[in-house]
Amino acid sequence: MATEHPALSRRSILLAAAALPASTLLQACRSPGRAPRTGDGPEPTHEQTEGPFYRLFSTQRPVLREAGMAGTPMDLSGRVTDTRGKPLANALLDFWQCDDAGVYDTRGYRLRGHQFTDAEGRYRLQTIVPGLYPGRTRHIHVKLQPAGDDVPQAPKMLNLTTQVYFPGEPGNGKDELFDDSLLMAIDRDHDGRIARFDFVLDIG
Ligand code: FE
Hints:
204 residues, alpha+beta, five-stranded mixed β-sheet, four-stranded antiparallel β-sheet, 2 helices, globular, binds fe (iii) ion
C-alpha cells in the first residue's frame, strides 16, 4: 500500500508556504485573539531576508560536506523550540549556503539540504564554514517550519526564514543585514568548528 512519505508531504507544504514572503505568512497566520507572550520563555528567532539563492526541492540530508570539498569542516547543532521553551519535534530545517570560495550552487544542490528535528527538537548539520562574497559577512541561510500539530491556529502554514552568523567576523559590522541575536556560539578548539544555535519559533 502506498503511503505518503512524511518528508515529501512536509516539502509540499513548504513549497506552498515558500510562495509567499515569510512575513506575510507569519502575519496571516497569527490568531487575532492570541494571548500576549508572558516573557518567561525565549525570544523568537528574528526573521531575515531569503536572498536570491534559495532553491526549492532540496534533498533530505544532514551532511552537506562532501569528499574533496574545500573548506573548514563545521558541525552546527542545537534545538528548535517554541516561545515557551517546548522542544518542537519533527520541525523542518532547510539549509543553504555558499561554498568556501563564496559561490552558491544555483544549478544543483551542493551545500543545500533539509532535515527534521528529533523527538527532543534537536538538529545537527554537518557542513563547511561558508566563504565570503561581496556585500555580505559570513552566514548560513535556513528556513524552518514546525510540524502541523504544533500550530493549532494555523496548521501547516507557517515558516521562518533567517540566517545565522559567525562571531568575530570583520564583516559583521559592515553588513546591513547582520543581526547579533543570530550569532552562533562557536568553539574553535578543534580541527573544524563546533557551532551551536537554538531556534525559537513563535507559533502562538
Ligand atoms: Fe547568502
